[in-house]
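Here is the promised in-class demo. Please do not try to memorize the tokens; focus on the logic of going from shape to residues.
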């Protein structure tokens, strides 16, 4: 197998058709609801129509939550409130329907798929359909050693690519992308700091567990030390993911790139998916045109990454739990935009003029009746 070169994706990924966007604008002008009256839903409908190459946009009927899971060796530095190697507990909670994303997805009728890319647990603890994709057990401690070998990094990216193909081939028409890990926000912050050229203190947040000040200082030191190892390999995305990423992050990066190739819209969740998206953007600058930012998490690294990719989050509800829950909350907004684009009636210019004239005549008649009534009451007095 020839070595994977992520830069090749720059030739494989195209932007959504600009001609479609022009057609969407013409379609929008033929709706009774005035242009701009639906706010960002208009913008989302246009984006989705271009992604689907369909005017109007088609309803989103087969969305899916896809979650990549892994454990990170850097968690041994106590940068998280969770014990190292316990991400499988979070996975089990999702599978048992007891986590926030599981509840939200069940309520919306959206299936959830969890992929073990690098959990540090015995495979027998989880179903085979979850663990059969595992690239390795856990990752290296990125402040002092590589997260993955080069071969493992490539296997993880190819895993993500294959899973994106599976989803596209099965008819999935939108993906809510999440992550489940212990220690995962530390490599995410490192990747974003390296790619944006910022210092550790600028990107280090408190994670989904809202760590205290001492843990934050340990995390900041871990990001600082990991950055020293990341900077020499910035020119090669695979080497970067191997040095300071992880199997779950590398797989998510491959998933995002191949989803863009397959023209499958993806809603990003938090800082981990934002970090993977930023790595993918470095490989293929048009790839972010196929993604939406679901929500603001308050993580400084996420804000830095989304700004670099010019992605504006749909929601800001302060959801920091991770696992795709915040992005899942954004899915109904995207579905609403698609439904409005697909189902609002379209009229010709003549029909619109007639509707406007009828409404104006009704307003004039209503005003005349009110005026006559007022005059009658004044005369009676």
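The designed amino acids, position by position:
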């Amino acid at each position: 197998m020839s070595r994977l070169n992520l830069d090749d994706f720059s030739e494989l990924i195209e932007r959504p058709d600009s001609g479609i966007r022009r057609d969407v604008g013409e379609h929008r002008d033929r709706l009774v609801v005035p242009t701009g009256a639906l706010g960002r839903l208009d913008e989302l409908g246009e984006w989705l129509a271009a992604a689907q190459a369909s005017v109007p946009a088609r309803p989103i009927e087969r969305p899916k939550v896809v979650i990549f899971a892994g454990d990170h060796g850097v968690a041994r530095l106590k940068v998280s409130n969770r014990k190292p190697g316990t991400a499988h507990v979070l996975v089990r909670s999702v599978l048992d329907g007891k986590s926030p994303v599981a509840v939200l997805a069940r309520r919306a009728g959206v299936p959830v798929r969890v992929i073990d890319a690098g959990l540090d647990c015995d495979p027998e603890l989880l179903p085979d359909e979850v663990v059969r994709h595992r690239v390795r057990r856990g990752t290296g401690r990125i402040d002092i050693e590589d997260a993955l070998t080069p071969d493992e990094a490539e296997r993880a990216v190819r895993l993500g690519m294959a899973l994106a193909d599976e989803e596209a081939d099965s008819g999935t028409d939108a993906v809510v992308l999440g992550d489940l890990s212990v220690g995962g926000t530390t490599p995410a912050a490192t990747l974003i700091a390296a790619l944006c050229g910022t210092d550790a203190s600028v990107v280090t947040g408190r994670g989904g567990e809202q760590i205290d000040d001492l843990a934050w200082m340990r995390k900041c030191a871990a990001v600082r030390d990991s950055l020293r190892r990341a900077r020499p390999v910035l020119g090669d995305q695979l080497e970067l993911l191997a040095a300071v990423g992880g199997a779950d992050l590398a797989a998510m990066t491959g998933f995002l790139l191949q989803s863009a190739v397959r023209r499958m819209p993806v809603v990003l969740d938090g800082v981990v998916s934002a970090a993977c998206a930023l790595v993918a953007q470095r490989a293929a600058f048009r790839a972010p045109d196929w993604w939406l930012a679901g929500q603001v998490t308050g993580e400084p690294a996420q804000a830095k990454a989304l700004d670099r990719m010019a992605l504006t989050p749909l929601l800001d509800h302060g959801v920091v739990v991770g696992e795709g829950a915040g992005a899942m909350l954004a899915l109904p907004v995207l579905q609403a935009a698609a439904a409005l684009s697909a189902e609002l009636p379209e009229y010709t210019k003549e029909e619109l003029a007639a509707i406007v004239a009828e409404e104006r005549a009704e307003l004039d008649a209503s005003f005349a009746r009110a005026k006559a009534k007022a005059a009658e009451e004044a005369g009676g007095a």
